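HUMAN:
Could you generate one sequence with tokenized structure?
ASSISTANT:
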Amino acid sequence: MFERFTEAARAVVKEAVVHAERERAEHVDEGHLLLALLERRGSRGAFVLDALGLADEARRAEIGRALGDARRRAGLSRADTEALAGLGIDVDEIVARVEEAHGVGALAGGRRVGGRRGFTREAKKVLEGSLRVAVLHGDRSIGDEHLLLALVSRGGVAAEVLGGYGVDAGGVERVLYGGDSGRAAG
């Protein structure tokens, strides 16, 4: 499938690996893909993010912090955290206790120094979803815009963070295709 990726999409995947390495993460996750997408310039994905109000460096930094906060919660989304709170489980309290005993970021998995990093199941689903998005729209290659659309279509932490800034699948599709062109399954 990687052979169908455009140069921009390949750059996103490679930069996501760099982000994971920088954090000493065990795996490349969907947040790393989003961080790499946010760094792109001059591509269709970058155009979409800019058109949806994410061109501002301060906003991009806020998104990076929100993804970092999610990693500190072991990758749990706010929706997951709220669901657990409904069961009487205070995730923030658990994170605080773990970090008190083992250090800040202990649940983020930032221990790996070298070696090749695999992709989490969620990140793999984004990559697979990008192929479905491209096919759905009749595109022969997979661009970074397809990665973005797959990312926001499937839910999860990265989609939740983008949603906090008003970025969702419908908005991405409107910018890319001028209207609702169907929903992409991620």
Remarks:
- The domain at 2-75+107-172 is CATH 1.10.1780.10 (Double Clp-N motif).
